[in-house]
Amino acid sequence: MKNNTWKINFETSKKHYLDWWNQKGIVLTMWEHIDKEGEPYAAIPAPPPAKDINQFWFDPEWRSDYLNYRMSRYSYKADILPVANTQLGPGSLAAILGSSLEGREDTIWIREKPDFDGTIILDENNLWWRLHLDLLKSCKTKAQGNYIVGCPDLMEGLDVLASLKGSDNALLDLMMDPETVLQKLQLINDVYFEVFDRIYDLINVDGEMAFCYFSIWGPGKVSKLQCDISTMISEEDFRIFTLPFLQEQCNRLDYTLYHLDGVDAIRHLDAVLELENLNAVQWTPGEGQPQGGNACWYDLYRKVLQNGKSVMANWVQLDELQPLLDNVGNQGLHINIDFKSEKDIEQALKIVEDYR
């Protein structure tokens, strides 16, 4: 595919991503974006200020105008992707299945469905499903090939079930009615694939796509996987209620990244590393912990790499970059740096080029 995006080095970055998915090389990027220096890529006017928080998140026309404006002003140096963030809350598949969304200043909360009766089907008339489709279509129209429209953070499995019926209820059911839970989790996976495939058909460009969270791109179907509620269940239950459904995703998608969230989730890493066709593991230390570039996580990264998966390290500081490469190596690393300016990006590029 010829590159027509505002990211002039996209073909080089694509090679970096393909290498990384296959446990080779380095991807150098960041979480979200920073503004570029100089003139924007195009003279796209800013939309009028959002009337309220609901328009900011849930008005597809306003939000697609806003994203179009912002994308024309971001920097895409290094391997920063030209991806419009269309997320509708972390775990918006639950809203598609009947939960509700509540916009906040910096994120969207998923509210459980008070009258959840256990029914898990894709309702074409669901308000939030229609919003997903309308937002993605509007963004794709306005992108005009200048950038990629990202896949929202749907989530899957136990995290979605917890968002439908409440975490306490979902956890109790693991003990009280495990067979029904397994049936519900399979239904969630079935809907996940139906929704994901529909979204892929909307947003892919010549078979390539990007995922909003964690800055990932690839040819074919690409997704972040997770089970954040795993911090509250045993290793045995993780293998029973989570691993089989993650494995199905790894088998049916082309490139997958597992989001390991919090020190209490580390006990499940061995199980995650057993997943066949899983390409990479992303590590989020959690609130109050040293972040991804700290030396205390080097052993964790080495373990992931030694088990044939690539690594994503997040919120790495610029002064942590070289020690990370010296100690963990230069193969299979996706490094998200907390860049503050394009000058920071240039400094990081100089360091990384010595290790490529």
Helix and strand sequence:
HEHHEHEEHEHHHEEEHHEHEHEHEH
Q: Which secondary-structure class do the elements indicate? A: alpha/beta
State the distance separating the first and last CA atoms: 25 Å
* Low-pLDDT sequence parts: none
Number of helices: 14
State Rg.
20 Å
DSSP helix fraction: 40-55%
Instruction: Please state the average pLDDT score.
Output: 97
Topology, number of strands: 12
Largest sheet: 6 strands, parallel
Strand order of the largest sheet: 1-12-11-10-9-8
- Chain oligomer state: single chain
Report the principal-axis shape: globular
Q: Per DSSP, what share of the residues sits in E-state strands of 2 or more residues?
A: 5-15%
What labels would you give this structure?
356 residues, alpha/beta, 15% strand, globular
What does this structure look like?
The protein is an alpha/beta fold and 356 residues long. 41% of the residues lie in helices and 15% in strands. The chain is built from 14 helices and twelve strands. The strands form four sheets. The chain has a six-stranded parallel sheet with strand order 1-12-11-10-9-8. Strand 9, helix 11 and strand 10 form a beta-alpha-beta unit. Helix 6 packs across helix 7 and helix 7 crosses helix 8. The model has no long low-confidence stretch (mean pLDDT 97).
